[in-house]
Amino acid sequence: MEKEIVWNAFHHVNWGVPITSYFWLVGASAGSFVISCLGWVFGIKRYKPIAIYASVTAIALLMIVPVVLIWDLGKPL
Prior knowledge:
By secondary structure, the chain is mainly α. It has helices at 17-40, 48-73.
């Protein structure tokens, strides 16, 4: 049986540093937010000492995320 190429598609996904950094920063921010919630909202004593640091880290990382997206887009508007 002879094979025939019907559609020659390029299957390479070009994810550079900006996109992978975006996913990493959003994940780290979400993890920090969860840790801060465990200490403050749910009152788990084990997480209370680091809850303030986790909150500051979550906010700082979320402030960096738009910069990474603009870096990837080049011209955002």
